[in-house]
Amino acid sequence: MHNFIKKISLVFAGVIAGIMVSLNFSAIADKEIKEELQTLPIEELRTFSQVFGRIKSDYVEPVEDKKLITEAINGMLVGLDPHSAFLDSEEYKELQIGTQGEFGGLGIQVTMEDGLVKVISPIEDTPAFRAGVKTGDLIIKIDDTAVKGMTLNDAIKRMRGKPDTPITLTVIREGEAEPLTFTLVRAIIKIDSVKSKLIEPGYAYVRITQFQERTGENLAEAITKLYSGSKVPMKGLILDLRNDPGGLLNSAVAVSAAFLPSNALVVYTEGRTNDAKMQLRANPEYYLRGSGRDFLANLPQSIKTIPMVTLVNGGSASASEIVAGALQDHKRSIVMGSQTFGKGSVQTILPLSNNTAIKLTTARYFTPNGQSIQAKGITPDILDEETDNDSRLLREADLNRHLSNGQEEKTDKAAASDKKGAQSSKRSKNKADKKQKKHEPMEFGSSDDLLLAKAVNHLKSMAQKSKHKTAKSTQS
Fold it and tell me: Could you confirm whether 381 is annotated as catalytic?
């Protein structure tokens, strides 16, 4: 047995070294990091090989080497933060399909919390959204199988399936005495990334549900259509990013560039490698993939100056926070709503062999003014949580093993404590309303959308003030 373990130790040391060589670590320029990688943790690798050997020899049933290695890789990544993960060939393929706007499933963004699947955000116009699944719901059972003990990937695989097949989710929701049961039908999720309409003459509404490959192009088309369809000059625009879970970084830059001056800083990132240190600007080289035409080039000139309100809530995460932060820092738009999710970390997809990949957190996002989004989010200029009937209680800072903010840690903790108290008060106040509306998600942009109505009134107020100021200046 001792010789077997010794051989396994040597094999694993060789495997780890081989992986390091094959990856080349071309992105790692820092001398300190290179030196760390050149020294293999021999004692830890010996322990790893001993555990591997014991499982192979003593486990109640035979276990394939591939399964043990895959689970070990999964454990390495899952133990880092909620967003790093190993993607097998099927998951890697589905990730690539998902960014193109069509994929199979229920339409929910999830993470793992205390051994249960926690809903980050339901995606609009999907089976989960229509059924009434909400942010913060804890999924405890998928059909008749308890979630406790599953990995996140296992749970996601169970929720996926052929379109038109039923699935039952049992969830625990804060404020509800008994678990809630939702019976959904799986579907091919087709997401319209950009929705738009004229609310009334001169006032436009644009909603972005997710940042996909063609979001920038779709936004440009929507703006052009709104301007051509308006019979009066455009007076104001509302950009709705509520419940937008994020998506592709270059699409977030494109959306920001549509409204910001040319070459304005949109976001910058800080990480350990040179590749993780970027400054992304409102310039085609940062949002176009390949040598395609600049779809923002022919937008109406006034789109850079028209009064704007950007709507956000606790379901606004990642790319949507980048856009809101950029528009806010450049004083291009008033941000209205509730505190955003706080997902301010960069995940890089690193392809491996056999069509697999790892999704690895490599940097933090910072707004143009240098504020870290991570575990903090964007604070609206006009804080209005009363109209947020979905009561977004879950934030990045609530997730286990979340990456720290990297700045102002003490201030963040105090703010989180104050926010938790405020949320507790709000829950008590809205408890009866939530019970009545738990299966009736409010449609953003509808006549029942109170925050949208407030945004329109704010734009009209701005127009009146501007008109009054112009008249006063003319008289003098």
Answer: no
Q: Distances in Å between the alpha carbon of 172 and those of 136, 176, 179, 424, 439?
A: 9, 7, 5, 17, 14
- Classified as helix, coil or strand, 236 is strand
Q: Is 329 a catalytic residue?
A: yes
| ∠ CA 170-138-207, rounded to 5° | 105
Considering only CA atoms, which of 386, 378, 379 is closest in space to residue 450?
386
137, 244, 329, 412: the catalytic one is 329
Domains of the chain: 2-63 (no CATH), 102-190 (2.30.42.10), 194-465 (3.90.226.10)
Rounded-to-integer distance, Cα 342 and Cα 82, Å: 13
* Residue 66 bears catalytic tag: no
Residue 277: how many other CB atoms lie within 10 Å: 12
Q: Which of 318, 320, 345, 372 is catalytic?
A: 318
> pLDDT per residue over 252-290, tens digit each?
999 999 999 999 999 999 999 999 999 999 999 999 987
**CA–CA distance, 313 with 152 (Å, rounded to integer):** 25
pLDDT at site 22: 40
Q: What percent of the chain has pLDDT over 90?
A: 55
Of 235, 343, 376, 454, catalytic = 343
Reported pTM: 0.77
